[in-house]
Amino acid sequence: MSVEATVRVIYGDTDQMGVVYYANYFRYFELARSELFRSKGGSYRDMEKEGRFLPVVDASCQYKASARYDDLLKVRVQVTEVRRASLEFGYQVRRDGEDTVLCTGRTVHACIGTDGKPTALPESVKRLLTPKDNHGP
Predict the structure, then answer these.
(1) 47-89 residue pLDDT tens
(2) 81-111: pLDDT as tens digits
(3) How far is CA 3 from CA 27, 35, 89, 117, in A?
(4) What number does CATH give the domain 2-129?
(5) Choosing from 13, 15, 70, 133, which is the catalytic residue?
(6) Does residue 15 have an active-site annotation?
(7) Phi then psi dihedrals of residue 3, to 5 deg
């Protein structure tokens, strides 16, 4: 299952050439991840209250076309892998109403405790984010 978040490019997101500065796509990815959690009835905040955190340990983005100031972007995110102590998300960014993919990306997140050491993902998060098959209730 994927979720789509909408973001409007503000002037501060662009570089001297008027295109979205490359690192800002990772901010858009973060927005989409938060919306994915919300759409499933959860939040990062709830997990952090339990003493678990999901720092990014690997991130990549493949740029295909430029987004510009005032573009309305659709950022699609989906969970691509759930492991015992990590999650992987995949992303795709398009301009609203267009088929052209502006970029694709992925982030990998380790689950750590308040001590900074790896720990298992909470069962509530696994249930929330593990894709359901079509054979169950």
Answers:
(1) 888 899 999 999 999 999 999 999 999 999 999 999 999 999 9
(2) 999 999 999 999 999 999 999 999 999 999 9
(3) 16, 7, 11, 30
(4) 3.10.129.10
(5) 15
(6) yes
(7) -125, 150
